[in-house]
Amino acid sequence: MSKKCLIILSYVDHPSDRLLYQLTEDADYIICADGGQMIARNFNIIPDAVIGDFDSTTIDQRFDCLYITYPSEKDLTDAEASLNHAIEMNCDNITFYGGIGGRLDHMLGNISILSKFTERGITVRFMDDSNYLTMITNGSINLPNSRRYKYFGVVPYDSEAKGVTITGAKYELHNVDMKRTGTLGISNEITGSYARVTVKKGTLLIARSRDTEPQK
Fold it and tell me: Membrane spanning segments where (predicted)?
């Protein structure tokens, strides 16, 4: 049986109380990555573990849970350290709350995390109220129709993704070889109850999103 883990990151570009509570209720194990513990405290969420170097927060007010402290100078981010712990706890379906937007170098690192663990058969996704990011390798995924995410796009993570098929969408593809240098898979919409994306050989980065109001 799949074991679901929620990892709350310190930065959430488009926060949503409703989404966070939904993810919390669905999780078997909850981790706060560094400053994510402040978000958990604000919403009365009790994590099972708090992990990080605590360079963006303090640990003066501790939860009654496991704390794992890393040095500030280390070879991985707090997000990856949290993901490693989730896997040690036998979680194989992992959702990050946050991690999309903010510092671009961290977001690129999060995409690398998707690649590393997707290839190992572990489901990983990043979510906030406006964006959703996941990845598939040599397989398929169903994308349910959602009011939260109007659009979706697929981009090859490798130089080429072979045999890409998209059904149940405004713009369908059938056994197409996609190159990373093109924009063929951008700005699609689900027309039915779900869209199905399949890649025969290669890795696809899959993003779901909606328009957001410009900041004033």
Answer: none
Q: Two tokens at 149?
A: 């995410």
What pTM value is reported for the model? 0.90
User: What domains, with CATH codes, occur in the chain?
Assistant: 1-129 (3.40.50.10240), 130-215 (3.40.50.10240)
Residue 126: strand pairing partners? 96, 133
Q: What is the DSSP string of 82-136?
A: HHHHHHHTT--EEEEES-SSSSHHHHHHHHHHHHHHHTTT-EEEEE-SSEEEEEE
Give me the residues paired with residue 155 across strands.
205
Q: Say if residue 163 is exposed, middle or buried (CB neighbours under 10 Å; 0-12, 13-18, 19+).
A: middle
- pLDDT per residue as tens digits for the range 36-91: 998 998 899 999 999 988 766 666 567 889 999 888 788 898 999 999 999 999 99
